[in-house]
Structure formats: C-alpha cells, structure tokens
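Shipment paperwork, digital attachment
Item: protein structure file
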Amino acid sequence: MTKMSHACRVALPTVLAALLCALGLATGVSLARAATQSVLYASPTGSGSACTITAPCSLTGARTQVEALAPDMTSDITVYLRGGTYRLASTFQLGVADSGENGYTVDYEAYPGERPVISGATQVTGWSLYSSSLGIYRASVPAGTESSQLFVNGTRAVRARSASNPSGFTLSGSSFVTSDSSYLSYTNVSDIQIVDDNDWKQLRCPLTSITKTSSGGSSLNVNPTCFSENNTDVPDVGFPFNGNGLPVLNAISWIENAYQLLTKPGQFYLDSAADYLYYIPLPGQNMATADVELPVLQDLVDLSGTPGHLTPVNDTSSGITYTGSWTYYSGRTYGDFGNDVHATTVNGASASYTFTGTGIEVLSEKNDDEGNIGVYIDGSLYETVSADASQRLAQQAVVAISGLSQGTHTIELVKESGTYLLLDALVVIPTPIQPVHNITFSGITFAYSTWTTPDTEGYLDNQSGILWDPATDLPVKTPAAVQVHRGDDINFTGDVIEHTGDAGIDFADGTQNSAITGDWITDTSSSGVELGEADDYYQAIAALMTTGDTVTDSTITDVGEDYHDGVGIWAGYTRDAVISQNDVGYASYGGISMGWGWGWQSPCSMQAAQGLSTCRQGTDYAGGNQITGNDIHNVMQYLLDGGAIYANGGQDGGNASMTSVISGNVAAEAGATATMIYPDEGSSYWDITDNVLRFGGASWIGMWTPTVNNITVDDNYSDNSSYYDNGTDTTLTQATIVTDGAWPAAAQAIIAAAGPSEQYTPVSGLIDDDDLGIQYTGSWQAYINRGLGDLDNGVHATTVNGASASYTFTGTGIAVISEKYLDQGNMEVYLDGVDKGAYSAYSATREVQQVIYSVSGLAAGTHTLKIVKDSGNYLLLDGLDVTRTLNDTDAAISYTGSWEYYSGRGFGDYDNDVHATTVNGNSVTVTFYGSAISFYTETYSDEGDIGVSLDGVSQGTVDAYAATRSAQQVLYSVSGLTPGLHTLTLIKDSGAYMLVDRFDVS
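Attachment content:
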C-alpha cells in the first residue's frame, strides 16, 4: 500500500483548506503560529463584544476588537464569519486603524463549511396577487425605499421596460415625440428613463414630464440638464480625458421604469412614492416562498486609507497669489488642465498658495523655452527644479513634494531662468499617505447592492463604465459594491461578488500590491473589476500610483447587465499590474480594457497624421503591465466599437520604456463589429504575441490610426485574416490563419493553458458551447446574444455536412443540448469512437435548450463524445450536460486538516485510490457549478458519521458504517438545485476513518 501525505492540499475557490493550513492545523505544519493566533468570531445575529465561538459578535463588534488588538499584533488576527446573511444597515468600513500591523494580517474568513453573505438588501415578503390579468404581485416596502435592482431566487429581475427600439419617435429639441397617446397615462413620470445604446456608450436621462402634442400624441420631455450633458453639451475635453468621436443621446433603445411598462414575467417596478414593489413571477416562482432581495445599499464594503481621491486645483483658483507680472492664457490647445495657464516672463515673479496637508504637486508645462523654478516651502528654499525640455509636454508634475508635517503650509514658485514660467494646476495632498493595509477577505460572498444616481441625474457615459462628472468635466468611475481606496496588500481570495447594482470590485486611488485571486464575480450592473483611475495620469509620487496589483485565476462573467458599457476588467493608469489566467465572459461591451488617455502620449507628428488640428501631449505613469493567459469569450454583446482585449493610451511609464504585454490569451465569440485585440488611439509600447483569436469579430487586430505606435505583434493565431495596421513604428506579422478548426500544436497549447488554473475553477457539469475543451472541426460560427433563450444566450452553428464538434470528459454520462427547429436535421453521434446513430433536431417550431442525445450509466472514466452534421441547413451546439466524475486527487477538491493519500489498495476504489483522515473535524470541500452532486466513498466497520453542509447550510449527517467493506457507495446525493455556484462540505464526525473516493457533478 502506497501512502502520501496531503496535509495542506488546497483548492482556493473554497479557500477553507487554505485557512486552516494558515492556522497550522495540518500535519507537518508548525503549530507555534497557531498557538499565538488571535481568533475572533462574528455571526449575523451576534451582538456581544467578546467575539468568541460561543458568544460571537457582529461585524462592527469584530472590527472594534481588531482595532484594539492591531497596534500590538504579534500574529495574524483571524475573524471567522459564521454562516448566514449579514444584512448591512450601512457600509462596512475599514480604515488604517483596522489594518494589520507589525507584518501581520487581519483575515476575515468564512468559518469552515459555512457560507457568510454580506448583503446590502432587504428581504421582501408579504406578496399578494395585485393584477390577475397581468399576473402582477405586490408587496409593501419600508417608507422611502429606493432601489434600481431586484433579485428573485438569485435571478436578476428586469426593471419594467418597453420593447427594444420602439418605433414612431422623433427627437424635437429635448423631447421624444410620438403619435402614440398611451404614454399620457403614465404615472410617476420623473422616475421614467430614456435609454440609448449608441455605438460604445449607453446614455440615460430621466423625464421631467409627458405632455400632449398638438396632434394628440405624446411628448416625452427629457430632463433638460441631463439632455444637455448627454446631447448638446457633451464634454469633449480631448486627450487625456476622451478620444475620437462623440455619440450622443438621440434615439430610444428602450423606455424604463414605469408601472405601465410592467407586462412580462421577470419584470419589476418599485413605486417609492407609494412604498410598493410590483413583480411578475417567472414560471415556477412561488411568491409565497420566493427569496426576494431588494438592494438598498450602494457600497457593501469600503476599505479606505489616506489621502482619498486627488483632484487638481486649477491655476485660476482664488487661493493662488501671483506676484509680479503674470498673464492669463485661456483656450490654449496644448493640453493644459482646464485649457488655461498663468505665465510670466520676469525672473523673480512668483506664485504662492497656502494649503493644509502633507504635500503638494505642481503641474506645469515643460518646453524648451522654460527654465529653472525656485520652490519655497514656508519661506525656505526647498528645491530648484527645471521645466526645460526638448518638446512641449503639458500637465507635468515639475514639483512633487510629500512627507511634510500635517498642517498649514505655503508653497511659493519663483521664476529663476528661461523665457517662461507657467503654472497650470496644483494637487494638494491633504493628509499623510497612509494606506489601509494587510487585510484579507477569504471565502465570503458579497451580494445585493444598488446604485440610484442614474435615476435622478442620468448616466453620462464616456466609455467602459467611466462617466463624466458634469460639475468638473472630469472622468469619474461607476461605484462598486466592494471598494478599496488607497490600499496596500489588500487581498480578496476565493470570494464571491454577485448581484450588484454597480460594479463588482474596485481597487482605486493608488491601491498597491493587492490581489483578487480565485474570485467569482458575476451578475454586475456595470463592470466586474475596476483597477486604477482615469484621471491621475500626472502622478509623479510613487506612493500615490496604482502599482503591483493582480487579478488572477478569477471567473468574471455576466457584466454590464444594466449599464451596457461595462467591461469584465477595466484598468486605467496602472503600473506593473498583472491580469492573468482569468475567465472573462458574457459581457455587454468589452472583455479586458487597459489604459486611458488616448493620444496624450503620442507625439504631435502622430496626432497631425491622425488629422487632429491641435496637439495635446503629455505623459502618464502607466507601464509594465501584463494581460496573459486569459479566456475571454462572448463579449461585445450589445455595444459597438470595442474589443475582447482593448488598449488605450501609452504604456511606457512616462518615457521610462516599461513595455506592457498581451500574450497567451484566447479571445473568442465576439460581436460582428468587434476587434479581437484593439489597440485604440495612442496605444503604445505593447508586445502582443502568442494569442489565439477565433469565432468572431471584424478583425483579429486593429491598429487603425497613426497615434498607435511602438507596438510589436507576432506569433498569433486566428481564423480571421482581417487586420488593420495604420500605426506608427509598429511591427506586425500576420497571424497564422487557421481554417476548419485545424489549430496547430502551438495554438492548441495556448487554448489548453488559458483561463483559471484547475484548482481555482469550480467544477462544472453544465458546459456552454464556448468552453475551451470543445473542439470544433470544419466550418463553424459563433452566434452570441441571439435573444432566443439559448444557454448563456448563444450557440455555435455549422451549415456544412461533415463538420463536427467533440468533447472529452471524465464522468458517467453526457447530454447534447441544442435547438430544435425546421431548418435543422440530423446529427450523427459517436461515443468513444462508436457510432450511436443519427438524432434529429428538426421541429416545426423553435424549441431552445433541447436534449438531442443523452447517455448515462457509463463506466466512470474518460470518454469522448463527437457530433457530426448529417443533414438540414444547420447543426447547432448550445451546450453539454456532463455527469462529471472527480477522483479524490482532483485539484478542485479541497482538504482541510490532516489527510493521507492511499493508492493501490485493491478494494475496488475508483481509480484504485482514496483520501482518508482519522481526525474528527477535518473536512473536504467541493465547489461546483451545476445542479447536482453525489459523494462516493467506502462503507466499513471502522467508519462513522459524516456531517454534510451544502452552500453553508447543514444537511445533517450520513453514516459510513457497515459490517462489511463496500467500495464506491453513494453516501450523499442531491439534485434539482438551481443551476449555479454551489459548495459541498463534508466533515468527519465519528469513527476511526473518513474516506473520500470520488464525486459526481452534473
């Protein structure tokens, strides 16, 4: 008998094993650290201050104890969150005082086998049938409740809306006019929104009134301020804030948020004035038992250091004193902040500013007609700096001072030489640079947030979830349910962020050395992940830059559900960021977007070649970033002019030659207008190599304009030969063009390696048609966002007889999911090379997600299914439903505590091996995506009870005792779960041994 220790074998989607391994509760791990570990406990019902396992406290109580313990930390502090829903009355806020100290970390972790959910929702009950003809149910909500989202049994409801692209409207001034008089009956008119998906933007505005036209029709009168900001006076600042083109709100994609629009199952309407919520159930939903979650909180968790967001003070501020001869220049066209500067030609002339803070940055212009500047702090010479440069560069931080004592200071700038001294703007650092730091969240679910600002102010889109602040004409990000501002060493590992009314998670305001690892981020109204800022391009103080962050091994799907400009991962100005091995899919707009600024860093000669009449040129600190090994699929579902991987602006670190990399990614199934890899205006200093681009897009790469520069593109693979190379100093080698799915070995290796590592990937029994494991041979196309009810809203299809799709799996059964329709015929099915006959997909009416072929009861092991088009116009593949077998050695299985591995036992174990433990309390966890799971083990006289927990809820115990030994026995099985993410945990309760042999998931 062979034995091997598996004391700390970890699968991080569940992170439970990692938690206890970190505590030293495993064979071969020193217990010295565990002995000094500070452990606190919180529960949804906790109220005490002791924070013990028998008297758990609330989240805020735990935070209070952490603050008391942190200054004298001699070990990590672990706060175990017991299972259940933590309904927040306000944002859970952590600051510098809540940070880990002395090199130790504060860990907020799920208690082993339990599922804590931090929620911003109120649960709505007391439903009654309100309209039998429409099937509308109604429930009361607390007075003044405001929300823009609703979730029923974990499914996002759609706010009541019209049909898409309603006809008959014309734009007249700021009103949309129609001959249809029915709109005159609409109530709560100021709550109604006009939504326009236009090119790469989604634009929204509320109405002020609906009035009768002279001809008896309806005039939908848009809020004039919002209409101006979205149509007649859209900010067009130019580089580095926006680029070429300016879509405006000039049409109606749909009308939203009126009771009169509540007509379809799955729709809701919240009447905040009358305190009622209305909903039409989906088939199968019982409102007497449904879990109805109405989000009422915008920010669930906020970790904030100091300073917060920094915004420049323009040179026109009344607090600036100019001494000597100065001239004010406005509308210069060189890229000044606010398009203006103050300038002097007189040596000795000065500008002074009194501020409260710990530092200041001075933005000026660099040029060959400028010289030295004396910098005085509180009357003493601090330094002399030079603004001399060989070319004109705007908004340069010629002075960057930090670390002053907290208090009131005066900076004075004195011209010493050169023809000019310019003052463009000042950036005050109001507080010490003190990040919130050394905090980890593990195994926790963050769910149910809302964002109501668009309801009252509209949605003033710039691009990719970056909006315009109408007060400043500066970019501002959509908020996120989980936010980190000015963080350092903040880590989210194995968490779930879902069902948000805004973005998922945001590493903002110079957050550094922080990580999102093995997380599941899904069903977000805006982007999934936001990293960095869109307006700190000028930053010259390293401690205030966004640097060293990672987003790895995470699954980020179904983003931009409400705001269609949302992307999977958005990164602005970042340095040394790593975005790698993620699954990014089902995005309304782009997959991964990195960089900002457009042609800001491109020389004036390139800007002129693009056809720009003026040159706005400066620098930014972005560079050294990596986008590698990601699986990006089903993107660009709604909007236009974007890409699976999108780049924007310069990547040389402000002339530091910090080339960034796009490598080893698979980008597939994108909208017909998409560019699979899209270096947009000003993109520069990228190496783009060894990527696979397939199944969609107008071109595999598009460098469309001369401001794109200094990019090397080689060793890529595509099934589309179209590309654009109109950049400057670019080197592009045409991709290896592949036909009929005949990918060469190098491309197959890239496909096999892309996406999250196995140990970070929840086991899935339901396989979508875009899964990288499916091999399509022959001529196939991907059709996304069909809107017909497909699995994940898309299919692959072929019109060529003989074209095939194959999939190799380890399991006991498989079903082929397709569409039935009159334009389809027979598919020939092969299993393990044996022809199983022809199966028809023909039907006189369209039927989606139909099982065309299925088999069960196969010997547990590896099998290959192949389908081949025989007849009909089309063969469609929508998905596969696999009964997947996981051996006890599978990387997706997480063992907590001390386990041993036994192989070659000869007792009939699956694959002739098991894992076993003798310690009560040790556990095993499987995170899976599907609707069913079965646990197989041995039953014998030396075994006992096993505790079962599903999604954090105890399912009681099962008994593994038997008088005689029997291998591969089903000890626990569950089916009929809502398809989605689930976690099964088994805990040893009694007996000499607990054995794990295999799991079957479907």
